[in-house]
Amino acid sequence: MFGRKTPSFLLLFQMSLGQQQSTRGVPCLRCKGTCSGFEPHSWRKICKSCKCSQEDHCLSSDLEDDRKIGRLLMDSKYSTLTARVKGGDGIRIYKRNRMIMTNPIATGKDPTFDTITYEWAPPGVNQKLGLQYMELIPKEKQPVTGTEGAYYRRRQLMHQLPIYDQDPSRCRGLLENELKLMEEFVKQYKSEALGVGEVALPGQGGLPKEEGKQQEKPEGTEPTAPTTNGSIGDPNKEYVCELCKGVAPADSPVVYSDRAGYSKQWHPACFVCTKCSEPLVDLIYFWKDGAPWCGRHYCESVRPRCSGCDEIIFSEDYQRVEGLAWHRKHFVCEGCEQQLSGRAYIVTQGQLLCPTCSKSRRS
């Protein structure tokens, strides 16, 4: 009927379908050419063609990633790392810090230039400190354009910070009451857990940078005396990494977490998720139980995550088996996709299978 308003949860589902269609055909990085291109499953976050995850297809673009992180950081105390999009009706985008290094190389009479672009660099630091930080990251994980490190960062942005953990429009089938629960869930973690690590020399965390501009201080922190980015901290104090307990040299950058307090610091390679031990992508963390978590593992430590669709469960009616959880409608065999509620099933290595598919995979 004309004039009838479409329910918001149906609009969200329609938006999700449109975004899903635009990713068709993207090649799989894991399959190395054997996959015919991304073919979206109707509700799982996998490719129907090769069964690999969306992450292995790197479906997002730089712009989409920046929009996602912008959305995550907006309405939080880290919104200064975002910028308003012109005509975007309140949409904000991540002000991603990129670092470009150009070194002249003499080749006979014609000079050429070796240009290295880091697709992300720590915000608020000078180039010298930024390069020092990069040198302390494993080479295969340095986000240099066109390298495995850049692809690693892209995959980690999808894996550690799933868009459907923060944006209801990217979830499938949220009911009205579940939508409200999700909105409150996101609002709460932005207020109580979300953080962005700060790179500085030992003893310099939370202090003004060399431009002379006072950094925004987290609420409740004590004012500190100004210093210069690049100067060395108290030479009589020994700084120790919170994770490995190794000494942090006074002239070598460390990572600070304002939610942990500035008495704690981490070596750059030690600022990892306490659950999966993977480096925290773009230094974005969630603070819980005295440790930093990646977004994925923080969210599923608070609410169950569906092992079928990979989304956080906001319904109180769900299936739980051997520490894993499923939406009732997603409690289906991963092989033949028959509904398994009330039927025999086998859970092996996190896979839910009917007896027939389990037997065929073993043979």
Give your account of this protein's structure.
It holds the Pfam family PET. InterPro entries: PET_domain, PET_testin, Pk/Esn/Tes, Znf_LIM. This is LIM and cysteine-rich domains protein 1. The strands form six sheets. This protein has a three-stranded antiparallel sheet with strand order 5-8-9. A two-stranded antiparallel sheet has the order 1-2. A two-stranded antiparallel ribbon has the order 3-4. Helix content is 22%, strand content 15%. It is of the alpha+beta class and 363 residues long.
Radius of gyration of CA atoms, rounded to a whole number? 23 Å
Helix content: 10-25%
Structural class: alpha+beta
Count of discrete alpha- or pi-helical segments spanning 4 or more residues: 7
Spatial strand sequence of the major β-sheet = 5-8-9
Measured between the Cα atoms of the first and last residue, the distance is 55 Å
What series of H and E elements makes up the topology?
A: HHEEEEHHHEEEEEHEEEEH
Please tell me what the overall shape is.
Answer: globular
Beta-strand fraction estimate: 15-25%
Largest sheet: 3 strands, antiparallel
- Residue-averaged pLDDT, rounded? 85
Beta-strand segment tally? 13
Unreliable residue stretches: 1-21, 211-232
Q: Can you tag this structure with a few keywords?
A:
363 residues; 3-stranded antiparallel β-sheet; alpha+beta; 15% strand
Provide a short characterization of the protein structure.
The protein has 363 residues and is an alpha+beta fold.
